[in-house]
Amino acid sequence: MTLVFVLISILVLIVLITWLKFNPFIAFLISSILAGFLLGIPAEQIAGSVQKGIGGLLGDLVIVIVMGAMLGKLVAESGAAQRISDVLMSIFGVKNVTWAMMVTGLVVGIPLFYNVGFVLLVPLVFTVSYRFKLPAVYVGMPLLAALSVTHGFLPPHPSPAALVAQFGANMGLTLVYGLIIAIPTIIVAGPFFAKFLKKIDAKPLETFQAQPKPEEELPGKFNSFFSALFPVFLLIGTTILTFQMTEGHWLLPYIKFVGDPGMVMLISLLIATYTLGIHMKSKIADLMDLYVVASKDVAMIVLIIAGAGALKQVLMDSGVSQTIADSLQGWDVHPLVLAWTITAIIRVCVGSATVAGLTTAGIIAPIVMSGNVDPNLLVLSIGAGSLMFSHFNDGGFWLYKEYFNVSVKDTIKSWSLMETIVAVVGLLGVMVLDLIIS
């Protein structure tokens, strides 16, 4: 009955949002409370689970999303995004815009957390879409596919990095295998799949759509790229330094502090405030007003993601992920397929790729000890399964829907289907690689 109760809770969420037109945040709260009662969480603990889910998710994301919105607004209004899009189009050409977005997402996505990469790069997507009169979803999907794949497949992202440690895999080899599988996966889920999305009606948030400026008013190429991508440089630099330093080094705590995604965004915003604002003769008061507008534009996005966090926490506290995993453990299938299947089902039910991956790790661990499967490929198999069919209980679903301003139906047809393609093609890549190296 556990799976039935999960499906009922998600169905109620869908009905509230699509049929009754409830605000998604309120719908999430109602569905989360219902799920808590159905799944047997004591009544006095349900409110605590909801609050923990909201606080836990927002604690990680609110600084990133709000600061990212401010930085995105500044990059757009200053003309930096226009300058960057001009350079990209001159290199790749308008006909190859999806490939330009794919490469950008892959390069930036390796060091960046998914949500950080999303809020940093989506404004660039909207600028390219607006300036060259191209459908926003068509332009953006290759970039989002690249960010998603790097998040699920490649260390040093949290889930694959944790799986490498749990299975005793080799970090470097897993990264190499991951890249071999990631590139064709992104091509299929990105530029190829995007061809079928040109008719989706998207009306991106206006905060990221600045009017084109005359050439002489634009910031320079170096200033534009440096200011917009400084968070990437900072994260890469701190990550490299963290790996190179010994645990007791006196600088390590400070490097970890600077490398925290929230601190990265704050530092980057302050630098961009000077390079794209004050340096370009803008007044501080005007810049602060710009940031207020940007914050208002993403306020509902923050609440919706918080609601998704509440539902995820209730499902986790109920033990539903462990129940599902235990029921599937006895299946007589290839270990890599079994790991992918368990992860995919938990992901669809719980909504969190990281939770799905780490839950599966505990179930699959005995298989690794048997020596019958390559631990590096097992990490990638679980990573692929953790991206399966993102939907209503996943914060990424709502982040995409609200930023691109598309309907729930079109979000499923584009975002959810893209994630499913990534999961399936990723598994196929793992199995092919297993045949080659075994």
UniProtKB/TrEMBL annotation:
Question: Which InterPro entries does the entry link to?
Answer: Glcn_transporter (IPR003474)
Q: Where in the cell is it found?
A: Cell membrane
Keywords of the record: Cell membrane, Membrane, Transmembrane, Transmembrane helix, Transport
Membrane-spanning intervals of the chain: 5-20, 26-43, 55-76, 96-122, 134-154, 174-194, 225-245, 257-278, 290-311, 337-365, 377-400, 420-437
- How does the entry describe its membrane topology? Multi-pass membrane protein
Q: Which family does it belong to?
A: Belongs to the GntP permease family.
Instruction: Write down what this protein is called.
Output: Gluconate:H+ symporter
The major lineage groups are: Bacteria, Pseudomonadati, Bacteroidota, Cytophagia, Cytophagales
